[in-house]
Amino acid sequence: MAVAPEVAVLPLTVLLAGVVVSFLQARGSRGRGASWTGLSASAFMFLAFASAMGLQAAGVSGRFQLFGTVPMEAGGLAYLLALIATGLGMAVSLYSVTYMREEPGLERYYPLLLLMTAGIVGIGFAADLFSLFVFFELMAIASYGLVAYDVREWEPLEAGMKYVVMSGTGSLVALLGIALVYFFAGTTDLAQLQVEAVRIPPAASVPAIGLLVAGFGLKASIVPFHTWLPDAHSAAPSGISAMLSGIVIEAGLLTLVKSLGIFVVPGGLPEVSFGFLLALLAVLTMTAGNLLALHQKDLKRMLAFSSIAQVGYILLGFGLAFEYGVRSGVEGSLFHLLNHAMMKGGAFLAAGLFLWYAGTRDLDRLAGIGRVAPIAGASFAVFALGLAGVPPMSGFLSKLLIAKAGLDAGGAWPLFFVVALAANSVLSLAYYVPAVNRIVFAEGRHPARRVPWTMQAPIAALALLTIVFGLLPDLPLQVVSSAADAFMRILGGA
């Protein structure tokens, strides 16, 4: 029996219900039920994850109207983003049960976390530019409050204000680009725009593309729009750092990619060539991110700068797909998006555990912390090596797919992009290896302290998945392939 595509809204509905329930639960307990609130939030994340997985397995797809007016589309790309966001959100919620236990204001923390996740899921399902922008803003506004969560400290307040100003500016710029598209095409529907966008003259489409790249690229932290990220990601609670680096900036990148897809002419590549621009920005982004991470002594800032580099890898695959129509670029980027969520999310959770244990983010003072917290220490080593692209971690395979895209495209410039990718992966070892050596193998003195399972289990699970997906990539690649099919349909099935 065919299932109506309207049921695909279930993950979003579950998350929004979780926002209300977690708020009422935290308010009702007046902070005394912090653990139960965190477990409830994790349960809602799990229900949303399970529903997305079930819907995809049942083959539920197609367009539908949310609330009777908002165009939405269920498909491989929507389910992939939903699974990544809710899966990482589930880990972060469980981790936060202990990490946030003594913090005030939990009636803000868990509802905002669920609301931010709902925005990310909505980005995957959005089928027109306006709803895409609305869900993007829902994600962004929730993240503002989470970055500046600890209002007692100056660092998160300063980082939050910088984030609000820059991200708000980016949103305004992107909205101007959307307005320009609507003015000439007369619609914001993504499917219709693929036909109507050819009516937009180059004198308007070029600035529209520039506005969208600058506006959404700022949220994705593409260089040179990246300056807010290190402060925001290092100042936020570690669970939120995991979400921001693991999936929020990638959701911003997917928002950019979906919006740029309207400029692809029916059955072919973009009428205005912007894929090459994206590939050049990708090389700039990965190189700058790695160089800036190279001399960091603050563990969370090092990981934050590393996230900029990882965005560059993902952007490169999409740029190659837009410019040359190579499917392997899309598959590599989407697979790396999944891998980065696991690896960088897990790395930030491990860094937060080290901070919780030792009270510092300074790498010199964290020497040997992996010996007293061996599960977190070993997991951090897995994440670091995976982010650097060392086999058999799953990060190696996704980078290999992106490199294959350059080889499939052929020519001097694609070869240059492949070399830049390989060189940056080697460069990242220059800070990942010393960090692992310092944390896991160096001598250090730290007091014996019991590490709760609620903090260790999510970290260990993400590390295990990083290894399993590297050794047995068929399962994740099935999900990625379904999402890549949806993207390649935009490029005329190239």
Which band does the percent of strand residues land in?
under 5%
Q: How far do the termini sit from each other?
A: 32 Å
By helix and strand content, what is the structural category? Answer: mainly alpha
Note the run of SSEs as H and E: HHEEHHHHHHHHHHHHHHHHH
Per DSSP, the total helix count is: 19
The overall pLDDT, averaged over residues, is: 87
Radius of gyration (Å)? 21 Å
Can you walk me through this structure?
This protein is mainly alpha-helical. It folds into two domains: 1-127; 128-490, no CATH class. It is 75% helix and 2% strand. It is built from 19 helices and two strands. A hairpin with a 3-residue loop joins strand 1 (62-66) and strand 2. The protein is globular and about 65 Å long.
Q: Topology of this protein?
A:
Layout: H1 10-29, H2 34-57, E1 62-66, E2 70-74, H3 76-99, H4 106-125, H5 129-147, H6 154-185, H7 190-196, H8 202-219, H9 229-235, H10 238-260, H11 275-293, H12 299-324, H13 327-358, H14 369-372, H15 374-388, H16 394-409, H17 412-441, H18 453-471, H19 474-490
Antiparallel strand pairs: 1-2
